[in-house]
Design brief:
The structure is a single chain. 38% of the residues lie in helices and 12% in strands. With 290 residues, it is α/β, with parallel strands linked by helices. Helix 2 packs parallel to helix 3. The two termini are 25 Å apart. The protein has ten helices and eight strands. Helix 5 links the parallel strand 5 and strand 6. It binds pterin-6-yl-methyl-monophosphate (PMM). Pterin-6-yl-methyl-monophosphate (PMM) binds next to strand 1 and strand 5.
Length: 290
């Protein structure tokens, strides 16, 4: 029986082109207001990103990326939020931690920028290593596996080894199998069925499936995929699955329904003998990433 609550990481994309919220929060004032809303709904972490990873996205310059995220990170951290920075660039990660971020979320697991792992090692921050095979212009053609689960776990283990060799302590690491990154819909479902193989690496597990394309396909009607903003109930169903499989955190575009799903799971699993208790609190969080 678990004794902790799966955390909710709210997505805040300060980009013009992310697949579900691109352009909505490019203005720093709108971005901070969105971050505050996610906090009010119960987000444990706000994940601030300045580069879209959608297939075909054009990379911003490092200066442009930093200019998007730094004021937002600074403002949210000043309000007491736990902030992660979603970046593949060491220089952006370093500036973000100086602005108040305490987690570096690197979808490339250190592969995109050779300076990333050593930079994070020198910072006071946790590090999310995601399974990744290449930038968005090549990732669809790289979705080829003979043993999906075995290959993803082995490639992720190699990134964890590289992070540790660079000096990032085990207690600072979090792993993520990278749903949708060099994976097609079938791959995503199969990986979800084998989350325990990723957890077996021995690090906290982040599950980031919110609004992703494979959910749009699942929910399609007459061949038309369900739009991203209408995938939140399906996303919350997967949050329940993630909680059931011991995920440390889920990364989501909305927060309330995910906190509610976790509260239900926690009430069933963590405190089966308690009667009349509140499900609203959702239990205590452990491993809170302050
Ligand atoms: N997916 C996206 C962005 N950042 N970070 C992690 N750790 N894992 C992910 O799967 C992930 C991520 C793409 O989704 P978005 O455009 O909605 O942010």
């Amino acid at each position: 029986m678990s004794t902790h609550r799966t955390l909710v990481m709210g997505v805040l994309n300060v980009t013009p082109d992310s697949f579900s919220d691109g352009g909505d929060f490019l203005d720093p004032v709108a971005a901070v207001a969105r971050g505050q809303l996610l906090l009010d709904e119960g987000a444990d972490i706000i994940d601030v990103g300045g580069e879209s990873t959608r297939p075909g996205a054009v990379r911003p310059s490092p200066d442009e990326e930093a200019a998007r995220v730094l004021p937002v990170i600074h403002s949210l951290a000043e309000r007491g939020a736990v902030v992660s920075v979603d970046t593949m660039r060491a220089e952006v990660a370093e500036a973000a931690v100086r602005a108040g971020a305490t987690i570096v979320n690197d979808v490339s697991g250190g592969l995109a920028d050779p300076a990333m792992l050593a930079t994070v090692a020198s910072l006071d921050a946790r590090y999310i290593a995601m399974h990744w095979r290449g930038h968005s212009d090549t990732m669809e053609s790289r979705a080829v596996y003979t043993d999906l689960v075995g290959e993803v776990v082995a490639e992720l283990a190699a990134r964890v080894d590289a992070a540790r060799a660079a000096g990032i302590g085990a207690e600072r690491l979090i792993v993520d199998p990278g749903f949708g990154f060099a994976k097609d819909a079938g791959h995503n479902w199969e990986l979800l069925r084998h989350l325990e193989a990723v957890s077996a690496l021995g690090y906290p597990l982040l599950v980031a499936v919110s609004r992703k394309r494979f959910l749009g396909s699942l929910l399609s009607r007459e061949g038309i995929p369900r739009p991203p903003q209408q995938r939140d109930a399906a996303s919350a169903a997967l949050t329940l699955w993630a909680a059931q499989h011991g995920a440390w955190a889920v990364r989501t575009h909305t927060v309330r329904e995910h906190r509610d799903a976790i509260a239900v799971w926690n009430r069933l699993e963590v405190a089966p003998a308690r009667s009349g208790g509140s499900v609203a609190s959702g239990g205590e969080a452990s491993g809170f990433p302050k």
